[in-house]
Amino acid sequence: MMTAVAFAQENKGRFVEELKALLRIPSVSTAPEHVADVRRAAEFVAAELKRIGMENVRLIETTTTKRNGHPLVYADWLHATREGDGKAKPTVLCYGHYDVQPAEPLDEWKSPPFEPTERNGNLYARGAVDDKGQMWMHLKALESLMVAGGGTLPANVRIIVEGEEEVGGEGIATFVREHGDQLKADVALVSDTEMFAPEMPTLCVGLRGMIYTEIEAHGARTDLHSGMYGGAAPNPFVALSQVIARLKDEGGKILIPGFYDKVQKPSADELKAWKALSFDEEHYRENEIGSVELTGEAGFSVQERTWARPTLDVHGMPGGFVGVGAKTVIPAKAVAKVSMRLVPNMNPAESFAMYKAYVESITPKGIVLEVRLIHSGDPIVVSTDNSYVKAATEAMHEVFGRETVFVRGGGSIPIVGDFVRELKIPTVLMGFGLPDDNLHAPNEKFHLANFHRGIESIIRFFSGVAV
Ligand code: BES
Ligand code: MN
Ligand code: MN
Q: Which residues are catalytic?
């Protein structure tokens, strides 16, 4: 009988072709014009789960407070028992997301975002690594195990794939809170993070939380001629700029009163481990960031600044005139999209309340502001002191031939907090992205060698969990 690893090796080409078909579906969760595409991606995933022999495959509809949500895809296979005493083997809850970020700006892509293209051992497409490619690794590992096991798996598996991760994950959070019993498992396996460096197997042990907000500024009743009324009418863009300028100082410190009160410092051990990582700041500045200088709080390393310190960023300011050339108008309203990343022990609701009160207190004259919360997620740290983390490091050691490094990630995966809190299970964040994979940016890619190594690592993880 062929082993699962051998099966995966023999089917590499097909696995990549299937992933390409999924990547051709523009499942942009934030865009109303793509609702049908998002559903098509869900159905694509469900069909494959069925084909490889998973059971109870279904789409679970979600509704959020704001709109009809995108469906969850669920499947399981729960027949693995120990020989001898017949007791159930551990259950792994696999998680991934099939939705993607918008692809804009389109003219910066070397090949179109939804026409997956291979170049230099990389697969370029929106969602290649975040997270369709990494989620597909889970399916392909399960398929390989299923074939090798003659229709059985070495451990019990539930899999849940969401379509709203990139818009805050409200639907899955509600499902986990209301139907946690349907996801009963011993450990969650998430592949939606990156490796610290190429060839360096990595487990992520912490993620930042976030609050994503909009500030809407209203001035005049309607747009006005800027010559006739400039000097008397308030300008909402100028007002928003003034507000934004007072949110963060030039040294990168956030100026919201009380914002840092609950920030928990990483442990001395963790800081020591981060210092020991080989990291070339100049290479990072030049190749990953591409700016003339790095910014942020003085006295903290890049790792501390991106993993363990809160930050505040502005993503866009819709409104006014953005066409070619000039238009002399004082817009009646303007919006700023502002988010903050939170770190352990900060609380999203409390942080939002502080921010809202502060913004309202600095509202410029003549302006009416509305501060809205779009979505939020808790910061998390996961424990490394369990047999599943050991199984993961052993699996990756067999594949990469190197010791695993433990790092945190600066990004957020909102549902991981609920896995820890609601399901009370450890989470293994075993991701295979690379630092230069361009997540959320033009020319997103997945290094195909890592796609295949990821599949093999997951196969070996399952075998390790099963013993
Ligand atoms: N996969 C990322 C999160 C991530 C990236 C974690 C890199 C660690 C390293 C995820 O898809 C993501 O982008 N999440 C959003 C969440 C938000 C929209 C609630 C994020 O971090 O912006
Ligand atoms: Mn992701
Ligand atoms: Mn993402």
A: 99, 165
